[in-house]
UniProtKB/TrEMBL annotation:
CDD domains hit by this protein: nat-AmDH_N_like
Signal peptide positions on this chain: none
2,4-diaminopentanoate dehydrogenase C-terminal domain span: 144-355
Coiled-coil annotated residue ranges, if any: none
Organism: Mycobacterium asiaticum
A Pfam family the protein falls into: DAP_DH_C
The protein, known as: Dihydrodipicolinate reductase
Length: 359
């Protein structure tokens, strides 16, 4: 039985909290909630369950560190406040508590993370004899697990394309995702955060370089590209309202280039409702979203992954899968040698343990 703390209860955190409560091999011992409206509430209420857990949310990080838990599931938004998040995670690691999470997406490929991010966390792992693992569905699964499965079915590869094609209309995260992608912005406005020089490469370039390492090839460069689509008609959705002339779809990628040609591409096509960017690719078979890998080679391999749920919509289902990439390896990370862990260090079967149980 692993004693676990859930850190944050937002779009991903409420789903990882629900998973922790449900699993018989995990014991929830603490919950962090930064907003005053959530502090003091039972964990069950924060994730839509009805039976109280007896564990109430707190904003006292010191109190959570003092619990001496086996592991923290850290899902709080970190990309807009990385130094604060590094400090919080490092406090747990230095105290001997392992951390799995979905925050600081640069760490999904820790070997390629910048020193300012990697080094303080590595030192904290050494001080507490603890481990840190970060992953998700994208960045994460699409570019570090699904792509390996596709490539294993070929005898030769000429190029690899990893895509997320999703309708984000029902994703209630305008303050970060919406603003960073620029939804609603006009063409003459300042570029959104995501498309400033080097940002896409910083977030997704690690996966491109990691694939190149495993393929044994040397890239000439990793570059980024983006394209935006502006709606002629108003679009209303949960994400935001986009007025005519505002941006309602975006297409961006990090590309690993050899001899002037992209050979490894991680691309996102993100729209608000099906009406946006009708000339761009859509998911197959009328699905609302897809994580796709295409390995051009001998033979050509294409794998399309669709996520659904009987109650939650597709965006929530994606958040559940993102949470799963962290929660499912808690036990292995707790047994791992100290340090920053990459997904290829984890035996695939270890991510299956504890997933099936009787009520």
């Amino acid at each position: 039985m692993r004693r676990v703390i859930q850190f944050s209860t937002g779009n991903v955190g409420r789903h990882s909290l629900r998973a922790i409560i449900g699993r018989p091999d995990l014991e929830l011992v603490g919950v962090h909630a930064s907003g005053p409206a959530k502090v003091g509430k039972d964990a069950a209420e924060l994730c839509g369950l009805t039976e109280p857990t007896g564990i109430t949310a707190t904003d006292d990080v010191d109190a959570l560190v003092a619990l001496g838990a086996d592991c923290v599931v850290y899902t709080a938004l970190g990309e807009t406040r990385p130094m604060e998040v590094i400090d919080q995670i490092a406090r747990f690691l230095a105290a001997g508590t392992n951390v799995v999470g979905t925050s600081l997406v640069w760490l999904a490929n820790p070997r390629h993370a910048d020193e300012w991010l990697r080094d303080p966390l590595q030192r904290a792992c050494e001080a507490g004899n603890s481990s840190l693992y970060v992953n998700g569905i994208d960045p994460g699964f699409s570019g570090d697990t699904l792509v390996y499965s596709a490539c294993s079915l070929t005898t030769r590869i000429s190029s690899i394309t990893v895509q997320e094609i999703f309708d984000y209309a029902n994703y209630d995260d305008y303050e970060f995702t919406g603003k960073s992608m620029g939804f609603g912005m006009k063409p003459d406005g300042d570029p959104p955060m995501l498309f400033l020089p080097g940002v896409v490469v910083s977030m997704f370039g690690g996966a491109v370089r990691n694939l190149a390492d495993h393929l044994g090839i040397t890239l000439d460069e990793v570059r980024q590209r983006d394209e935006r689509w502006y709606t002629p008609e108003p679009i209303d959705c949960i994400m935001t309202r986009v007025e005519p002339g505002g941006m309602a779809a975006v297409r961006f990628a990090a590309e690993g280039v050899v001899d002037g040609q992209p050979v490894i591409t991680l691309e996102h096509i993100t729209r608000l409702t099906n009406a946006a960017a009708p000339e761009w690719p859509y998911p197959p078979d009328g699905e609302p979203g897809v994580h796709r890998v295409v390995a051009e080679g001998e033979p050509r391999i294409e794998i399309n992954t669709h996520i659904s749920h009987p109650v939650f919509d597709t965006t929530d289902a994606g958040c559940i899968s993102t949470a799963a990439r962290a929660v499912n390896v808690i036990d292995w990370v707790c047994r791992a040698p100290a340090g920053l862990i990459a997904v290829d260090e984890i035996p695939p079967a270890e991510a299956l343990r504890g997933l099936m149980w009787k009520e």
